[in-house]
Amino acid sequence: MELSHQLLQYLLSGLSTGAIYALIGIGFSIIYNATGIINFAQGEFVMLGGMMTLFLLEALHLPLWAAVPLAVCIVTLVGLGFERLAIRPLRNASPISLVIITIGGAILIRGLAMLIWDKDTHAIPPFSGDEPIMLAGATLLPQHLWILGITVVLISLNKWFFNHTISGKAMRACSYNPRAAGLVGVDVRRMVLLSFMISAAMGSLAGIIVAPLTMTAYDVGIMLGLKGFCAAIIGGMSSGLSTVIGGLILGVLESMGAGLISSGYKDAIAFIILLLILFIRPQGLFGKPESERV
Amino acid sequence: MLELKGITQIFGGVTALKDVSFSVNQGEITGVIGPNGAGKTTLFNIATGIYSQTSGQVIFEGRDISGLPAERLARLGMVRTFQNIELFGKMTVLENVMVGLHSRSSSGLFACSFKMPWAVREEQRIRDEAHQWLQFVGIDDLAQLEANNLPFGRGRLLEIARAMACNPRMILMDEPAAGLNSQETLGLAELIRRIRDRGITVVLVEHDMELVMDICDRIVVLNLGQKLTEGTPREIQDNPEVIAAYLGDDD
Amino acid sequence: MKRELIKFMLFALCVLVAPLFFSGSYLMNVLVFVGIHTLLAVALNLLLGYAGQISLGHAAFFGLGAYGSGILTTTFSWNPWLAMVTVAVIVATMAFAIGFPILKLKGHYLAMATLGLGIIIFIVFNEWVDVTGGPSGFPGIPNLELGTLVFDSDLKNYYLVWSFVLGCVLLSVNLANSRIGRAFRAIHDAETAARVMGVNARLLKVQVFALSAMICAIAGSLYAHVMTFIAPPSFGFNISVELLTMVVIGGLGSIYGSFLGALLLTMLPEFLRFMHDYDIVFYGGLLMVMTIFMPGGLVRGIPELFRKLAGLKKGKGDAHA
Lengths: 294, 251, 321
Description:
The complex is a heterotrimer.
Chain A: H1 3-35, H2 42-58, H3 64-87, H4 95-116, E1 133-135, E2 138-140, H5 142-164, H6 166-176, H7 178-183, H8 188-214, H9 221-234, H10 241-260, H11 266-280
Antiparallel strand pairs in A: 1-2
Helix pairs in contact in A: 1-5, 1-6, 1-8, 1-9, 1-10, 2-3, 2-4, 2-8, 2-9, 3-8, 5-6, 5-8, 6-8, 9-10, 9-11, 10-11
Chain B: E1 2-11, E2 14-24, E3 29-33, H1 40-47, E4 55-60, E5 63-64, H2 70-76, E6 78-81, H3 93-100, H4 109-113, H5 117-137, H6 152-165, E7 170-174, H7 182-197, E8 201-205, H8 209-215, E9 218-223, E10 226-231, H9 233-238, H10 240-247
Parallel strand pairs in B: 3-8, 3-9, 6-7, 7-8
Antiparallel strand pairs in B: 1-2, 1-4, 4-5, 9-10
Chain C: H1 2-22, H2 26-50, H3 58-74, H4 80-102, H5 107-127, H6 129-132, E1 145-146, E2 149-150, H7 154-176, H8 179-189, H9 191-196, H10 201-227, H11 237-250, H12 255-271, H13 279-293, H14 297-320
Antiparallel strand pairs in C: 1-2
């Protein structure tokens, strides 16, 4: 294969994994903006999406079109339960307690998944076959198109929700100033709950659409979650376009790095980028430094 | 002793302070007053290195201290207290004051871990001196109490004791009388005078006019981010502009 | 001060006589690991419980100590003691250097950054096969020797590891009760106020990070020489979380609490063998339950629980009377 074809191939697969990172990253940002919490259990929502779909497909023999929405609903309920049981009791706790509680939650969810299902790696069948599509010398799977398509739809929905619905606007108000939002009648606690549900839903869907490409297992949540967080950091914890671009940049860099440098160190790339961004531009690639008002 | 030159501070397009200049004389009590939103606390945070100003200079004893981190200022002899009392809540009252002596002690990580004789001696000195400062503000009987459990007024005294333990040449107090009852305020006024009598320059931002007029040697009035005027309490009380700023301009 | 000394003497006495009861049983071996875990938990507690700075990458420093000692003594035939000291100094220096940018971050961001750092180092353990042996591990590390004494049995290793633990606990308790320890707690409680008091928060945070990393590296060296074989999974993210659990369960800001946490989390899986593999579920649940219901850890929570129970009884009695 020529180098240019190879590069195109890396670019395409990088964009589709990047889209997944973007979805997960937006999940992080939504919760962060509503609560100031980085939810370490975000990756577990992603894992649950894939595993739950698999379970519904194989154990209950549901068709794909029914299994996917049902799985998303179940994971959304998990998000709801997580907020109620773990986050709400600690509303005024220190950041360290919140970090610890979400880590505890993540481990618990992961462990329970292992307990309920197993430790094996599973494949979910692709949504519409695996006939490769040729594109200027590079191959593309139908699943790649699904991923890109669903991502575009989800991000548009997300944007519409935050800009054009009452709940969305109320959530934005909470992220700017929760106390003021509370004073004008926004139910801040409901918004926090909603943010966990939306993040769980987006995360689970990301986990479902990527599963046919990368397989799924009880422990895929750690890496996917962390990379989603990396995307969000590149995007400055925005729940909009910057995080999407952050995800795409990360996906492409990772796939180029894996192809051209070393596949073993592929995972390290994301974390080196993460550290560099945190050290040099903690406000994200596109953000302006804020003047801190204490 | 402290000189502010042309301080301007802009927060995301909002001008909080505009070209404010004044100076504080050594050994005096200077009050900074002004209606809500006049920029008093912002000015304070700039003078003590918590914020860095958009433009202008802060000169302390002839040295430009703009942009120096807060911990350097303490070593230069400038220390502050906070409007909402910032104590080390999970430490005892005594330990709070002992932290105030941190910048005046020097045993390092290893000397402390290995209990070197000089570190042990220094620790004893810190402890003794901390007790003296608690006596100075009159709460030595509460030394072993956890700071979180102090009543508000005592917390204020502890904060002042802790600041004094830094051996400052200048102490800045952000609304020291806020939340105190009239009895406690009287005690505070007496305490601030005793601090001045030790030769320490005092600057306070305060709402309580009675206290300010009572103890201050000079007063600076801010309004809407600008300096309105400055002078002795007498002059300020008689200044029509000040009265207008406080009562609101109706014409 | 005197009370601290008495507490330490009691602790040391328990450590000294424990082998009388367990000598020869497999628990002796478990107790060696309790010791290593205590070192790690105390190290993390200095950073997290005292200075209030979280790290989710501490297992990596443990690993650097283990691999450093393993490689220097096996591949390069260094004297193990010299290797241990060298590695400790190198790891401390590395942590000191990385500490400046990393500890500028706060709370959640710091947690993520240390997690990232830990994972990068973990990936290197796995991928740098020529040096570390990669996923299949690094065998053939010699036991430590002191003159003619070779630390090759559980009993000898017990005394070896626990003398380090006693030293570490004594020094940590001293530090915690000194001006430096006070400054750590002040930073934890109210960083701005601490800085206004002249506490150089940035430097102190980096110092405690380096110290903490150094203790972990020493624990790693001991682990390598005790085990004689090391492999990457012992230094992964799960281990960092396990350490965090020990510190939280024992009690943030309590040195002896860390020992309690290490003891509990190392012993429990031995008694709950049926939970093998699933112990991680247990850690997760324990972390959550403790954070919600006993945020002070066992050392503070248990006395409080007793007080409450006593109060409850008394309250009932009063109602009846």
